[in-house]
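Re: the multi-chain job from yesterday

Posting the exact lines I submitted so nobody has to dig through the queue logs.
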Amino acid sequence: MDLLSKKITFRHALAQWYAKAQRPLPWRTQPSLYRTVVSELMAQQTQIKTMLPYFERWMRRFPNFTALAEASSEDVLKHWEGLGYYSRARNLHKLAQQYIAAESKPRTQAAWQALPGIGPYTSAAISSIALGEAAAVVDGNVVRILARLNDDARVFKNNGEAVKAFTTTADALLDTANPGQHNQAMMELGATLCLKHKPLCTVCPVATFCAAKRNGTQDARPKIERKASIKIEINRAWVLQGDKLLLHRIAENSSQLAGQYELPTLEAVSAKTSKRRLLASRSRAITHRRIKEHIYQTKPKRTLDHSIEWIAVRDLPRITLSGPHRRWINELMSMHNSVAGTQ
DNA sequence: AAAGCGGGGTA
DNA sequence: TACCCAGCTTT
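And the result, structure tokens for all chains:
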């Protein structure tokens, strides 16, 4: 392959650029195995800029594997609140407990991938960055860069197919003497210059290796098919009596959102015949689903499911809610208070 | 192989 | 609005 025949000079150009252009991220300026692990879990499907404040707060509360392993699930989940993909927090918690308990600590990509929440990407990242193993990472950034370097016109069914297709090339391109630096340099290039829209090719350190730049096809690479979006509507109940709010608690053994609270659905709380008043409508998107949620003020049914709980308003800061639910409750609570205050 | 997961940023 | 982001797990 054309690119691989020049891989030595490519690696050098990339490394020279990364040495001076890299962002001073906290897990780079003060590296450790633990900080690498936490940063990688937090960065899954999440932009660095978004997770950065969470990382700093996390490190103050859980500075090492031991502190995290000994923390309660509630405490761990609370510090993840708003970041999304909450199974990452539960997996990271379990991982810390397994790591502390392990007689022999994991030291290879294969050993790391056996831990909860660690897949091919994250195991390669941890083992290369923190342990010096020659494992190439292939994330969205690397896919984009390699597709452009080769001006690859193939159409991939989804991101997973694209990752598989570029794994061989990524492995061959890896600087095995400095795998951690090389991997981070590739991702840094994708995050700061080889952008999805309007890549900054004029300042790219490896532009001379890039077939897409030569052909002017940057914006069309890579080609990955998208799922059609689905529209969903959900009705939720706002039941505030005295100083207590009715919330739905998701079971601890649920595979998703375990232990989190949310505004209950209207059907779960309110009899069909009871009066209701629309307080607010909000839209949000979860991957390819577009969800519209309507929140109604209503009265509760006589008998409620055990998963529906009265939560004192003063306890709201202590429980874990998803970002949108936290925001809606704050909005509705201040609406309520302002109305009450004028009476 | 495909679906599900969350939220924020951006054009 | 639609798509993307340092992906993994479950079905």
